[in-house]
Amino acid sequence: MNKNDAVFGEHAEVEDVSDEQNRVKVTIFGQSYTLRGSGSSERLTRLAALVDAKMNALSEQNSRMDFQTLAVLTALNLAEEYETLATEYEALLTTLEQEIKK
Questions:
Q1: Who has the most CB within 10 Å: 21, 28, 47, 57?
Q2: Is residue 8 within 8 Å of 44, Cβ to Cβ?
C-alpha cells in the first residue's frame, strides 16, 4: 500500500482489503489519494470533495497554516458538524416518538 492509499469505511483494516471494495482516486488539497471502501465510488468522491472544500475554506482564512494543522482543524470542524446534526436528529426522533404516542 502506498503512502497515499487509504482504506475507507467502518471497521476498515489496511491488511485485509476485499476485492469487492470500490477504489477511487481523489485529490484533497492538492494531494492525490487512492481510497478503497465498501461505499460507492460516487460516495467516496463526494466525501473527498467535502473534505477538500473544507480544507480550502480554512486555508483561505489562514494561508500560513501548515498541512497537518489544516487537516486536524478540518477534522474538528467536520466532527463538530456531525455532532450537531446527530444531536438534532436525536431531538427530532424524540419529538416524532412523542407525537406518535399521542
A1: 28
A2: yes
Rounded Cα distance, 33 and 48, in Å: 9
Q: If DSSP codes are grouped into helix, strand and coil, which group holds residue 18?
A: coil
Integer Rg of the chain from CA: 17
What is the residue extent of each domain of the chain?
5-101
Q: Calculate the CA 10 to chain-centre distance.
A: 12
Sign of CA pseudo-dihedral 63, 69, 70, 74? negative
Nearest alpha carbon to residue 37 among 15, 6, 80, 78: 6
pLDDT, tens digit, for every residue of 28-58? 999 999 999 888 999 999 999 999 999 999 9
What are the DSSP E strand ranges found in the chain? 5-8, 22-28, 31-37
And the C-alpha cell for 83? 455532532
Which pTM was predicted? 0.76
Q: How far is CA 31 from the centre of its chain?
A: 16
